[in-house]
Specification:
single chain; 23 helices; two-stranded antiparallel sheet; 8-stranded parallel beta barrel; alpha/beta; 12 strands
């Protein structure tokens, strides 16, 4: 029989022994300075273990949806992938309901060292789901969420936020979360609007000002491309640790200050995937980040397509070996390397010409500035309004002029796996087959070579079926007739029971 009083007493004891603030930062987390950020579908167990191998002192899980984590056992089982060496670990949740996030956090608290609330995601999906940075103006709700988790979890609650344009409001925001019970705060030095081509540079001065007004441990996030940036950020902001996301994805050895060959990191990652399996989409995403600069080279277009369609571990390993076979002789100095041409359709908008290292070495991706993006948009708008502009032309492989829509359709077909040119042509020809009664396309499985409407009329008039269209007139009429005949039969007489005398 379960002793509820004993369980309640144990829970109370765990709450009373919960470390807070700097005691939690030092004793539980081990005073980390190098932190791997929570990244959706990217900071899974295999990647975390690779980062720990190369200097990461604390890792966050990917962002998990609190509602799904609390209610879907399969989602929770897939999300809670960890091992004994995967510590210290902070699991991050998104949501907008205090009790819902609490239920998810209670299910996770025995597998991690703290629970983080995502208040920084600026993506459109966060806007639709009403979480992340789209909660940053609802201070009453955030106070309730943080207070609830702080009061009822046996581990600390932390938060990750973005800044407001108003510096004073950012400081008040951080102090509000601290007062509600947040034990560690991560501040991303960009606003909610700074994303995609408008990402720009994070403002570390906001982070420094927040650091001066709160007493709990703090991490900084933004502008971290290499180890030098980590140390500059620590000195400029006074924070306790620095979190890396995109810089870490392009170079998992960022915290060791080295730039290993991309195939070395990719090979080690795939070896860890064999130990800690994950979806192929995660693997593909990581390899595209590691091989980013190589995949932008025109001569590697075929390799890029192979990686894009790979969905098995063996296929990913083949791509890694192909990259290694091509570029390892250059790395060893056996062959002099001549810079290869970049694919302008892929690298447009980035600063690929500013590579400081050879393209086969792990190094950060440098985004184009927001000003450059706005300038390109303005130029396109002016060109579109110019009546004398030269119309852009598109051609197929035979040199015939085609529309832009047709060109995009052909490119999509080329990206489809396991489709030969003959199969594509046959599929296109089938689309040109028309109903023998009208101008509509015929059903591909219709026995009468008709469209659905004409086929239905034919089945009604000739009393037949078309399994291809799922029209079963003859069968249903036969069943209806059988039912009518059965209903018309007289009912058998029933014996009348006589009362005993």
């Amino acid at each position: 029989m379960v002793n509820k009083d004993a369980d309640q007493g144990e829970a109370t004891e765990r709450l009373s022994c919960k470390l807070k603030g700097y005691d939690f930062y030092r004793s539980t987390l081990g005073s980390p300075r190098y932190v791997v950020a929570p990244m959706v579908d990217q900071s899974e167990l295999a990647w975390r273990m690779l980062c720990r191998r190369y200097g990461a002192q604390l890792c966050y899980s990917p962002m998990f949806h609190a509602n799904l984590f609390a209610t879907d056992p399969k989602y929770r089982k897939d999300a809670l992938q960890t091992c004994a060496a995967d510590r210290p670990l902070i699991i991050q949740f998104c949501g907008n309901d205090a009790e819902q996030i609490l239920e998810a956090a209670l299910a996770a608290q025995d597998h991690c060292d703290a629970v983080d609330i995502n208040l920084g995601c600026p993506q459109a999906i966060a806007k639709r789901g009403h979480y992340g940075s789209f909660l940053q103006d609802e201070w009453e709700l955030l106070t309730e969420i943080v207070k609830t988790l702080h009061a009822k979890l046996s581990i600390p609650v932390t938060c990750k936020i973005r800044i407001f344009e108003d510096r004073d409001k950012t400081i008040r925001y951080a102090k509000m979360l601290e007062a509600a019970g947040c034990q560690l705060l991560t501040v991303h030095g960009r606003t909610r609007e700074q994303k995609g081509p408008l990402t720009g540079v994070a403002d570390w001065s906001y982070i420094r000002d927040v650091r001066q007004h709160i007493k709990i441990p703090m991490f900084a996030n933004g502008n971290i491309l290499n180890l030098e940036d980590v140390h500059r950020c620590l000195e400029a902001t006074g924070v306790d640790g620095v979190m890396s996301a995109e810089g870490n994805l392009h170079n998992p050895a960022i915290f060791q200050g080295i730039a290993p060959p991309v195939w070395q990191m990719a090979k080690e990652y795939l070896e860890l995937v064999e130990l800690y399996p994950c979806p192929s989409s995660y693997i593909r995403g990581h390899l595209f980040k590691l091989f980013h600069h190589l995949m932008n080279i025109s001569q590697n277009s075929e390799l890029r397509e192979t990686l894009a369609t790979a969905n098995q571990l063996k296929q990913f390993q083949t791509v890694v070996e192909a990259v290694k076979a091509k570029y390892e002789p250059y790395q060893r100095g056996e062959i002099p390397y001549e810079p290869e041409a970049m694919d302008v359709n892929i690298s447009a908008g980035s600063d690929e010409d500013r590579l400081r290292l050879e393209p086969w070495l792990c190094q950060p991706y440098i985004r184009a500035s927001p000003e450059s993006h706005r300038q390109k948009i303005a130029e396109k708008e002016r060109a579109a309004e110019d009546p004398n502009r030269t119309k852009r032309q598109f051609f197929d492989k035979d040199g015939n002029e085609i529309s832009r829509k047709r060109m995009k359709k052909l490119r999509r077909r080329q990206r489809r796996p396991n489709k030969t040119e003959t199969q594509i042509q046959l599929r296109h020809e089938r689309r040109l087959e028309y109903c023998t009664e009208c101008a509509n396309p015929q059903g591909s499985k219709c026995e009468f070579q008709l469209c659905r409407v004409c086929c239905k009329d034919r089945c009604y008039s000739t009393n037949c079926d078309c399994p291809g269209h799922g029209i079963l007139i003859k069968s249903r009429r036969a069943k209806a007739k059988q039912f009518e005949e059965h209903s018309a039969q007289p009912a058998p007489p029933t014996a009348v029971a006589q009362d005993p005398l």
